[in-house]
Amino acid sequence: MSAIRTRFAPSPTGFMHIGNLRTALYGYLFAKSQNGTFILRIEDTDQERLVEGAVDFIEKTLAAAHIYVDEGPKEGGDYGPYVQTERREIYREYAEKLLESGHAYRCFCDPKDKDAHKTDFSGYDRHCRDLSEEEIRAHLDAGDAYVIRQRMPLTGTTTYMDLVHGLITFENSELEDQILLKRDGLPTYNFANVVDDHLMAISHVIRGAEYITSAPKHVLLYKFFGWTPPAFLHLPPVMGKDADGKTSKLSKRHGAVNFGDLIDLGYLPEAVTNYVALLGWSPKGTQEIFTMDELIREFSADGLSKSPALFDYQKLDWMNGEYFKAMDPAKFAALAKPFAGDLPAHIDEKWDYLAGILQSRLAKFSEIPATIGFLKEMPDYALDAFVNKRNKTTVEGAREILPQALPVLESITDWTPDGINAALDPFVESTGLKKGAVMWPLRIAVAGQPVTPGGLTEVLYILGKENSLERYKKSIDKLEA
Ligand code: GLU
Questions:
Q1: Ligand 1 mean position, distance from CA 41 (Å)
Q2: Which atom of ligand 1 is nearest to the CA of 206?
Q3: Domain limits, CATH 1.10.1160.10, in the chain
Q4: Is 85-235 a domain of CATH 3.50.50.60?
Q5: Range(s) for CATH 1.10.10.350 in the chain?
Q6: Contact by Cβ (8 Å): 347, 375
Q7: What is the pLDDT of residues 325-363, one digit of tens each?
Protein backbone atom coordinates (compact mmCIF):
# COMPACT_ATOMS: atom_id res chain seq x y z
CA MET A 1 0.00 0.00 0.00
CA SER A 2 1.26 3.42 -0.85
CA ALA A 3 2.04 6.03 1.75
CA ILE A 4 -0.78 7.75 3.61
CA ARG A 5 -0.78 11.45 2.83
CA THR A 6 -3.61 13.73 3.93
CA ARG A 7 -3.94 17.45 3.63
CA PHE A 8 -5.78 20.32 5.22
CA ALA A 9 -6.55 22.86 2.52
CA PRO A 10 -8.07 25.98 4.06
CA SER A 11 -8.77 29.24 2.34
CA PRO A 12 -6.91 31.94 4.23
CA THR A 13 -9.56 33.67 6.29
CA GLY A 14 -8.82 35.21 9.66
CA PHE A 15 -10.63 32.61 11.76
CA MET A 16 -10.86 28.86 12.25
CA HIS A 17 -14.41 27.56 12.48
CA ILE A 18 -14.81 24.48 14.64
CA GLY A 19 -15.90 22.52 11.56
CA ASN A 20 -12.63 23.39 9.83
CA LEU A 21 -10.62 22.55 12.88
CA ARG A 22 -12.31 19.16 12.94
CA THR A 23 -11.44 18.61 9.27
CA ALA A 24 -7.81 19.41 10.04
CA LEU A 25 -7.82 17.22 13.12
CA TYR A 26 -9.29 14.19 11.36
CA GLY A 27 -6.81 14.61 8.51
CA TYR A 28 -4.02 14.75 11.04
CA LEU A 29 -5.27 11.79 13.07
CA PHE A 30 -5.92 9.73 9.97
CA ALA A 31 -2.35 10.29 8.78
CA LYS A 32 -0.62 9.98 12.14
CA SER A 33 -2.50 6.84 13.12
CA GLN A 34 -0.98 5.19 10.04
CA ASN A 35 2.49 6.70 10.09
CA GLY A 36 1.45 9.04 7.34
CA THR A 37 2.21 12.62 6.42
CA PHE A 38 -0.01 15.61 7.13
CA ILE A 39 0.17 18.48 4.68
CA LEU A 40 -1.05 22.06 4.91
CA ARG A 41 -1.95 23.66 1.61
CA ILE A 42 -3.24 27.19 1.39
CA GLU A 43 -6.04 27.62 -1.14
CA ASP A 44 -5.81 31.32 -1.85
CA THR A 45 -6.92 31.54 -5.45
CA ASP A 46 -10.01 33.47 -4.48
CA GLN A 47 -8.19 36.78 -4.19
CA GLU A 48 -11.22 38.62 -2.88
CA ARG A 49 -11.24 36.59 0.30
CA LEU A 50 -7.59 37.08 1.17
CA VAL A 51 -6.84 38.17 4.70
CA GLU A 52 -3.46 39.47 5.64
CA GLY A 53 -1.47 37.28 8.01
CA ALA A 54 -3.93 34.44 7.54
CA VAL A 55 -1.33 31.77 6.78
CA ASP A 56 0.49 32.61 9.96
CA PHE A 57 -2.79 32.55 11.79
CA ILE A 58 -3.68 29.10 10.45
CA GLU A 59 -0.29 27.66 11.38
CA LYS A 60 -0.50 29.11 14.88
CA THR A 61 -4.04 27.88 15.40
CA LEU A 62 -3.16 24.36 14.32
CA ALA A 63 -0.13 24.33 16.61
CA ALA A 64 -2.26 25.63 19.50
CA ALA A 65 -4.65 22.74 18.86
CA HIS A 66 -1.64 20.37 18.91
CA ILE A 67 -1.93 19.61 15.21
CA TYR A 68 1.51 19.57 13.66
CA VAL A 69 2.14 20.07 9.98
CA ASP A 70 4.74 17.87 8.25
CA GLU A 71 4.76 19.70 4.94
CA GLY A 72 3.45 23.18 4.33
CA PRO A 73 4.29 26.80 3.52
CA LYS A 74 6.51 27.14 6.61
CA GLU A 75 7.78 23.58 6.84
CA GLY A 76 8.55 23.16 3.16
CA GLY A 77 8.68 19.70 1.61
CA ASP A 78 9.26 17.92 -1.67
CA TYR A 79 5.88 18.79 -3.15
CA GLY A 80 5.86 22.57 -2.79
CA PRO A 81 5.10 25.32 -3.13
CA TYR A 82 2.20 24.80 -0.73
CA VAL A 83 0.42 28.06 -1.46
CA GLN A 84 -1.76 27.95 -4.55
CA THR A 85 -1.03 31.45 -5.83
CA GLU A 86 2.61 30.39 -6.02
CA ARG A 87 1.63 27.52 -8.32
CA ARG A 88 -0.21 29.37 -11.04
CA GLU A 89 2.13 28.27 -13.82
CA ILE A 90 1.41 24.67 -12.91
CA TYR A 91 -2.34 25.08 -13.28
CA ARG A 92 -2.00 26.80 -16.64
CA GLU A 93 0.19 23.97 -17.89
CA TYR A 94 -2.37 21.37 -16.84
CA ALA A 95 -5.33 23.35 -18.16
CA GLU A 96 -3.59 23.47 -21.51
CA LYS A 97 -3.14 19.73 -21.45
CA LEU A 98 -6.89 19.39 -21.15
CA LEU A 99 -7.40 21.82 -24.02
CA GLU A 100 -5.15 19.64 -26.14
CA SER A 101 -6.89 16.44 -25.21
CA GLY A 102 -10.30 18.03 -25.82
CA HIS A 103 -11.48 17.67 -22.22
CA ALA A 104 -11.62 21.42 -21.81
CA TYR A 105 -12.44 24.36 -24.02
CA ARG A 106 -11.96 28.11 -24.15
CA CYS A 107 -15.03 30.13 -23.34
CA PHE A 108 -15.14 33.71 -24.56
CA CYS A 109 -18.53 34.57 -23.13
CA ASP A 110 -18.56 37.87 -21.32
CA PRO A 111 -19.04 37.18 -17.61
CA LYS A 112 -21.18 40.32 -17.41
CA ASP A 113 -23.68 38.53 -19.64
CA LYS A 114 -23.93 35.76 -17.12
CA ASP A 115 -27.68 35.52 -17.35
CA ALA A 116 -27.56 35.25 -21.11
CA HIS A 117 -25.62 32.02 -20.72
CA LYS A 118 -27.39 30.44 -17.84
CA THR A 119 -29.76 27.51 -17.94
CA ASP A 120 -31.69 26.51 -14.87
CA PHE A 121 -30.50 22.99 -15.07
CA SER A 122 -26.77 22.74 -15.52
CA GLY A 123 -25.55 26.28 -15.14
CA TYR A 124 -23.60 27.60 -18.11
CA ASP A 125 -25.38 26.97 -21.45
CA ARG A 126 -22.24 25.60 -23.15
CA HIS A 127 -22.35 28.38 -25.76
CA CYS A 128 -18.62 28.06 -26.50
CA ARG A 129 -18.36 24.30 -26.13
CA ASP A 130 -18.38 23.61 -29.83
CA LEU A 131 -16.86 26.69 -31.41
CA SER A 132 -15.09 25.96 -34.68
CA GLU A 133 -11.34 26.27 -35.06
CA GLU A 134 -11.93 29.46 -37.06
CA GLU A 135 -14.15 31.02 -34.44
CA ILE A 136 -11.61 30.28 -31.75
CA ARG A 137 -8.79 31.67 -33.84
CA ALA A 138 -10.76 34.85 -34.54
CA HIS A 139 -11.36 35.41 -30.83
CA LEU A 140 -7.70 34.80 -30.00
CA ASP A 141 -6.51 37.10 -32.79
CA ALA A 142 -8.82 39.81 -31.49
CA GLY A 143 -7.20 39.36 -28.07
CA ASP A 144 -10.52 38.36 -26.45
CA ALA A 145 -10.23 37.24 -22.87
CA TYR A 146 -11.39 33.73 -22.06
CA VAL A 147 -11.84 31.21 -19.32
CA ILE A 148 -11.13 27.50 -19.69
CA ARG A 149 -14.07 25.20 -18.99
CA GLN A 150 -14.27 21.51 -18.31
CA ARG A 151 -16.04 19.57 -21.06
CA MET A 152 -18.37 17.32 -19.10
CA PRO A 153 -19.63 14.13 -20.64
CA LEU A 154 -23.29 14.67 -21.55
CA THR A 155 -24.39 11.14 -20.83
CA GLY A 156 -23.54 8.37 -18.41
CA THR A 157 -22.78 8.56 -14.72
CA THR A 158 -19.78 9.15 -12.50
CA THR A 159 -19.31 7.10 -9.37
CA TYR A 160 -16.80 7.39 -6.59
CA MET A 161 -16.17 5.65 -3.33
CA ASP A 162 -16.59 7.69 -0.20
CA LEU A 163 -15.10 5.96 2.82
CA VAL A 164 -17.72 7.59 5.06
CA HIS A 165 -20.82 7.40 2.88
CA GLY A 166 -20.13 4.51 0.51
CA LEU A 167 -20.57 4.63 -3.26
CA ILE A 168 -21.88 7.92 -4.59
CA THR A 169 -23.16 8.26 -8.15
CA PHE A 170 -24.04 11.38 -10.15
CA GLU A 171 -25.61 11.79 -13.60
CA ASN A 172 -23.01 13.44 -15.83
CA SER A 173 -25.74 15.43 -17.56
CA GLU A 174 -26.24 17.31 -14.31
CA LEU A 175 -22.66 18.50 -14.09
CA GLU A 176 -21.94 22.03 -15.26
CA ASP A 177 -19.12 22.73 -17.69
CA GLN A 178 -17.38 24.42 -14.81
CA ILE A 179 -14.61 26.97 -15.14
CA LEU A 180 -11.14 25.54 -14.52
CA LEU A 181 -9.02 28.59 -15.23
CA LYS A 182 -10.33 32.11 -14.76
CA ARG A 183 -9.64 35.13 -16.97
CA ASP A 184 -7.00 36.30 -14.52
CA GLY A 185 -5.14 33.04 -15.11
CA LEU A 186 -5.88 31.74 -11.64
CA PRO A 187 -7.53 28.35 -11.28
CA THR A 188 -10.86 27.74 -9.58
CA TYR A 189 -10.97 25.68 -6.42
CA ASN A 190 -12.29 22.65 -8.30
CA PHE A 191 -9.35 22.60 -10.69
CA ALA A 192 -6.48 23.57 -8.41
CA ASN A 193 -7.67 21.10 -5.82
CA VAL A 194 -7.40 18.17 -8.20
CA VAL A 195 -4.08 19.18 -9.72
CA ASP A 196 -2.59 19.74 -6.30
CA ASP A 197 -3.96 16.62 -4.66
CA HIS A 198 -2.49 14.61 -7.48
CA LEU A 199 0.89 16.36 -7.62
CA MET A 200 1.18 16.29 -3.84
CA ALA A 201 0.45 12.56 -3.86
CA ILE A 202 -2.50 12.91 -1.50
CA SER A 203 -3.88 9.47 -0.71
CA HIS A 204 -7.00 10.49 1.22
CA VAL A 205 -9.03 13.67 0.78
CA ILE A 206 -10.78 14.48 4.04
CA ARG A 207 -13.11 17.48 3.95
CA GLY A 208 -16.60 18.75 4.62
CA ALA A 209 -19.72 17.17 3.15
CA GLU A 210 -20.38 20.36 1.18
CA TYR A 211 -17.89 18.95 -1.34
CA ILE A 212 -19.80 15.72 -1.99
CA THR A 213 -21.34 17.27 -5.09
CA SER A 214 -18.00 18.64 -6.32
CA ALA A 215 -16.27 15.30 -6.09
CA PRO A 216 -17.74 13.82 -9.33
CA LYS A 217 -16.33 16.80 -11.24
CA HIS A 218 -13.00 16.13 -9.58
CA VAL A 219 -13.20 12.43 -10.35
CA LEU A 220 -13.80 13.24 -14.03
CA LEU A 221 -10.72 15.45 -14.06
CA TYR A 222 -8.63 12.62 -12.65
CA LYS A 223 -10.00 10.43 -15.40
CA PHE A 224 -9.27 13.01 -18.12
CA PHE A 225 -5.68 13.21 -16.92
CA GLY A 226 -5.37 9.46 -16.58
CA TRP A 227 -4.66 9.77 -12.85
CA THR A 228 -5.89 7.55 -10.04
CA PRO A 229 -8.17 9.56 -7.76
CA PRO A 230 -7.47 9.63 -4.02
CA ALA A 231 -9.92 8.10 -1.56
CA PHE A 232 -12.57 10.53 -0.31
CA LEU A 233 -13.93 11.03 3.18
CA HIS A 234 -16.65 13.66 3.37
CA LEU A 235 -17.45 14.68 6.92
CA PRO A 236 -21.03 15.48 7.91
CA PRO A 237 -21.60 19.01 9.18
CA VAL A 238 -21.30 20.19 12.76
CA MET A 239 -24.66 21.46 13.97
CA GLY A 240 -25.79 23.76 16.75
CA LYS A 241 -29.02 23.66 18.71
CA ASP A 242 -31.45 26.49 17.93
CA ALA A 243 -33.71 28.17 20.44
CA ASP A 244 -36.69 26.20 19.13
CA GLY A 245 -34.92 22.88 19.75
CA LYS A 246 -34.19 22.25 16.07
CA THR A 247 -30.64 22.13 14.77
CA SER A 248 -28.86 24.05 12.05
CA LYS A 249 -25.30 24.35 10.86
CA LEU A 250 -23.16 25.62 13.74
CA SER A 251 -22.96 29.39 13.49
CA LYS A 252 -22.50 32.49 15.64
CA ARG A 253 -26.05 32.47 16.91
CA HIS A 254 -25.30 29.23 18.75
CA GLY A 255 -22.36 30.75 20.61
CA ALA A 256 -18.62 30.87 19.99
CA VAL A 257 -17.83 28.86 16.86
CA ASN A 258 -14.22 29.73 16.15
CA PHE A 259 -11.33 28.02 17.87
CA GLY A 260 -9.87 31.38 18.92
CA ASP A 261 -13.17 32.55 20.42
CA LEU A 262 -13.41 29.39 22.51
CA ILE A 263 -9.88 29.95 23.78
CA ASP A 264 -10.77 33.57 24.60
CA LEU A 265 -13.70 32.23 26.60
CA GLY A 266 -11.24 30.28 28.68
CA TYR A 267 -11.44 26.76 27.32
CA LEU A 268 -8.14 24.92 27.16
CA PRO A 269 -6.88 24.14 23.66
CA GLU A 270 -6.37 20.49 24.65
CA ALA A 271 -9.96 20.23 25.83
CA VAL A 272 -11.33 21.84 22.67
CA THR A 273 -9.26 19.50 20.51
CA ASN A 274 -10.40 16.52 22.55
CA TYR A 275 -14.03 17.60 22.30
CA VAL A 276 -13.80 18.30 18.57
CA ALA A 277 -12.27 14.84 18.02
CA LEU A 278 -15.52 13.32 19.30
CA LEU A 279 -17.74 15.46 17.05
CA GLY A 280 -18.48 12.85 14.45
CA TRP A 281 -16.02 10.15 15.42
CA SER A 282 -16.63 7.47 18.06
CA PRO A 283 -13.85 5.60 19.74
CA LYS A 284 -14.37 1.87 20.27
CA GLY A 285 -14.68 2.03 24.05
CA THR A 286 -16.34 4.46 26.45
CA GLN A 287 -13.30 6.62 27.15
CA GLU A 288 -13.93 10.30 26.45
CA ILE A 289 -10.86 12.11 27.69
CA PHE A 290 -7.98 11.55 25.31
CA THR A 291 -4.50 12.96 25.00
CA MET A 292 -3.36 13.59 21.47
CA ASP A 293 -1.21 10.46 21.58
CA GLU A 294 -4.20 8.42 22.64
CA LEU A 295 -6.31 9.93 19.87
CA ILE A 296 -3.65 9.01 17.35
CA ARG A 297 -3.59 5.48 18.68
CA GLU A 298 -7.37 5.09 18.74
CA PHE A 299 -8.42 6.91 15.60
CA SER A 300 -9.75 4.94 12.69
CA ALA A 301 -12.03 5.90 9.81
CA ASP A 302 -14.63 3.27 10.62
CA GLY A 303 -15.53 5.28 13.72
CA LEU A 304 -16.58 8.24 11.55
CA SER A 305 -20.27 8.99 11.56
CA LYS A 306 -22.44 9.56 8.50
CA SER A 307 -24.85 11.79 10.34
CA PRO A 308 -24.36 15.39 11.50
CA ALA A 309 -22.73 16.00 14.87
CA LEU A 310 -24.22 18.32 17.48
CA PHE A 311 -21.93 20.82 19.17
CA ASP A 312 -22.94 20.72 22.81
CA TYR A 313 -21.52 23.57 24.88
CA GLN A 314 -22.47 21.86 28.13
CA LYS A 315 -20.51 18.81 27.17
CA LEU A 316 -17.53 20.99 26.31
CA ASP A 317 -17.90 22.70 29.71
CA TRP A 318 -17.83 19.33 31.41
CA MET A 319 -14.81 18.17 29.48
CA ASN A 320 -12.91 21.39 30.07
CA GLY A 321 -13.69 21.12 33.78
CA GLU A 322 -12.18 17.64 33.76
CA TYR A 323 -9.04 19.04 32.16
CA PHE A 324 -8.88 21.74 34.82
CA LYS A 325 -9.12 19.18 37.61
CA ALA A 326 -6.32 17.11 36.14
CA MET A 327 -4.03 20.08 35.68
CA ASP A 328 -0.91 20.94 37.60
CA PRO A 329 -2.13 23.56 40.15
CA ALA A 330 0.69 26.01 39.42
CA LYS A 331 -0.07 25.86 35.73
CA PHE A 332 -3.77 26.35 36.39
CA ALA A 333 -3.06 29.37 38.59
CA ALA A 334 -0.85 30.93 35.94
CA LEU A 335 -3.27 30.37 33.06
CA ALA A 336 -6.27 31.51 35.09
CA LYS A 337 -4.67 34.72 36.33
CA PRO A 338 -5.21 36.91 33.23
CA PHE A 339 -8.95 36.21 33.46
CA ALA A 340 -9.13 37.55 37.02
CA GLY A 341 -8.56 41.16 36.01
CA ASP A 342 -7.06 43.64 38.45
CA LEU A 343 -7.07 42.30 41.97
CA PRO A 344 -6.67 44.24 45.18
CA ALA A 345 -3.26 43.54 46.70
CA HIS A 346 -4.57 41.43 49.59
CA ILE A 347 -6.29 39.05 47.13
CA ASP A 348 -3.53 39.17 44.59
CA GLU A 349 -1.02 37.83 47.11
CA LYS A 350 -3.30 34.86 47.81
CA TRP A 351 -3.95 34.13 44.14
CA ASP A 352 -2.43 30.65 44.17
CA TYR A 353 -4.62 29.70 47.11
CA LEU A 354 -7.73 31.14 45.47
CA ALA A 355 -6.87 29.45 42.18
CA GLY A 356 -6.59 26.17 44.06
CA ILE A 357 -10.19 26.61 45.18
CA LEU A 358 -11.38 27.60 41.71
CA GLN A 359 -9.61 24.75 39.95
CA SER A 360 -12.16 22.08 40.77
CA ARG A 361 -15.15 24.38 40.40
CA LEU A 362 -14.83 26.09 37.04
CA ALA A 363 -15.93 24.93 33.62
CA LYS A 364 -13.98 27.69 31.87
CA PHE A 365 -11.74 30.61 32.78
CA SER A 366 -14.26 33.23 31.69
CA GLU A 367 -16.35 32.32 34.73
CA ILE A 368 -13.67 33.75 36.99
CA PRO A 369 -14.73 37.42 37.14
CA ALA A 370 -18.29 36.55 38.16
CA THR A 371 -17.10 33.86 40.56
CA ILE A 372 -14.67 36.07 42.45
CA GLY A 373 -16.44 39.41 42.06
CA PHE A 374 -17.68 39.29 45.66
CA LEU A 375 -14.11 39.14 46.89
CA LYS A 376 -13.25 42.38 45.15
CA GLU A 377 -16.35 44.19 46.23
CA MET A 378 -19.01 43.37 48.80
CA PRO A 379 -22.29 42.74 46.98
CA ASP A 380 -25.35 44.69 48.05
CA TYR A 381 -27.46 41.86 49.40
CA ALA A 382 -30.98 41.53 50.77
CA LEU A 383 -31.53 40.29 54.34
CA ASP A 384 -33.29 37.16 53.19
CA ALA A 385 -29.88 35.89 52.09
CA PHE A 386 -29.56 34.87 55.75
CA VAL A 387 -32.50 32.53 55.35
CA ASN A 388 -31.54 29.00 54.43
CA LYS A 389 -33.91 26.09 54.80
CA ARG A 390 -31.36 23.31 54.87
CA ASN A 391 -29.35 24.90 57.66
CA LYS A 392 -32.50 26.19 59.35
CA THR A 393 -31.18 29.74 59.49
CA THR A 394 -33.28 32.90 59.79
CA VAL A 395 -32.75 36.65 59.82
CA GLU A 396 -33.50 36.72 63.55
CA GLY A 397 -30.96 33.96 64.19
CA ALA A 398 -28.32 35.92 62.27
CA ARG A 399 -29.11 39.03 64.27
CA GLU A 400 -28.32 37.02 67.37
CA ILE A 401 -25.29 35.00 66.33
CA LEU A 402 -23.31 37.59 64.43
CA PRO A 403 -22.52 39.85 67.40
CA GLN A 404 -21.64 36.78 69.48
CA ALA A 405 -19.04 35.64 66.96
CA LEU A 406 -17.52 39.08 66.48
CA PRO A 407 -15.11 38.94 69.46
CA VAL A 408 -14.08 35.44 68.38
CA LEU A 409 -13.09 36.70 64.96
CA GLU A 410 -11.42 39.77 66.42
CA SER A 411 -9.34 37.60 68.70
CA ILE A 412 -7.80 35.54 65.91
CA THR A 413 -4.13 36.38 65.58
CA ASP A 414 -3.17 33.60 63.19
CA TRP A 415 -5.35 34.60 60.21
CA THR A 416 -4.75 31.44 58.19
CA PRO A 417 -7.26 28.69 57.33
CA ASP A 418 -5.95 26.64 60.27
CA GLY A 419 -5.89 29.58 62.64
CA ILE A 420 -9.42 30.61 61.67
CA ASN A 421 -10.75 27.06 62.13
CA ALA A 422 -9.02 26.75 65.46
CA ALA A 423 -11.07 29.69 66.71
CA LEU A 424 -14.35 28.95 64.96
CA ASP A 425 -14.69 25.26 65.84
CA PRO A 426 -14.90 25.77 69.61
CA PHE A 427 -17.22 28.72 69.03
CA VAL A 428 -19.64 26.56 67.00
CA GLU A 429 -19.53 23.98 69.73
CA SER A 430 -20.28 26.57 72.40
CA THR A 431 -23.47 27.63 70.60
CA GLY A 432 -24.87 24.09 70.59
CA LEU A 433 -25.96 24.68 66.99
CA LYS A 434 -25.11 22.62 63.93
CA LYS A 435 -22.03 23.82 62.10
CA GLY A 436 -23.99 24.88 59.03
CA ALA A 437 -26.36 26.95 61.10
CA VAL A 438 -23.44 29.09 62.27
CA MET A 439 -21.39 29.10 59.10
CA TRP A 440 -24.25 30.19 56.87
CA PRO A 441 -24.98 33.57 58.47
CA LEU A 442 -21.29 34.31 59.04
CA ARG A 443 -20.49 33.58 55.43
CA ILE A 444 -23.34 35.75 54.18
CA ALA A 445 -22.04 38.52 56.44
CA VAL A 446 -18.65 38.62 54.73
CA ALA A 447 -19.50 37.34 51.23
CA GLY A 448 -22.90 38.94 50.70
CA GLN A 449 -24.08 36.03 48.54
CA PRO A 450 -25.29 32.49 49.10
CA VAL A 451 -22.87 30.72 46.77
CA THR A 452 -19.12 31.15 47.16
CA PRO A 453 -16.12 29.18 45.96
CA GLY A 454 -14.88 27.69 49.21
CA GLY A 455 -16.60 27.97 52.57
CA LEU A 456 -16.47 30.58 55.32
CA THR A 457 -12.90 29.79 56.34
CA GLU A 458 -11.58 30.17 52.81
CA VAL A 459 -13.50 33.39 52.23
CA LEU A 460 -12.26 34.91 55.51
CA TYR A 461 -8.70 33.92 54.76
CA ILE A 462 -8.71 35.36 51.24
CA LEU A 463 -10.37 38.62 52.31
CA GLY A 464 -7.88 39.05 55.13
CA LYS A 465 -8.67 40.05 58.71
CA GLU A 466 -9.15 43.75 58.24
CA ASN A 467 -11.38 43.45 55.22
CA SER A 468 -13.38 40.60 56.72
CA LEU A 469 -14.08 42.46 59.96
CA GLU A 470 -15.05 45.63 58.14
CA ARG A 471 -17.60 43.69 56.05
CA TYR A 472 -18.75 41.76 59.07
CA LYS A 473 -19.47 44.83 61.17
CA LYS A 474 -21.35 46.45 58.32
CA SER A 475 -23.51 43.35 58.13
CA ILE A 476 -24.25 43.58 61.84
CA ASP A 477 -25.28 47.19 61.33
CA LYS A 478 -27.41 46.18 58.39
CA LEU A 479 -29.18 43.55 60.51
CA GLU A 480 -29.78 46.00 63.29
CA ALA A 481 -30.97 48.82 61.11
N1 GLU B 1 -10.35 25.33 0.32
C2 GLU B 1 -11.41 24.43 0.63
C3 GLU B 1 -12.06 24.89 1.94
O4 GLU B 1 -11.53 25.77 2.58
C5 GLU B 1 -10.85 23.04 0.79
C6 GLU B 1 -11.79 21.94 0.47
C7 GLU B 1 -11.02 20.65 0.34
O8 GLU B 1 -10.46 20.20 1.31
O9 GLU B 1 -10.98 20.12 -0.77
O10 GLU B 1 -13.10 24.42 2.29
A1: 9
A2: 8
A3: 239-326
A4: no
A5: 383-480
A6: yes
A7: 999 999 999 999 999 999 999 999 999 999 999 999 999
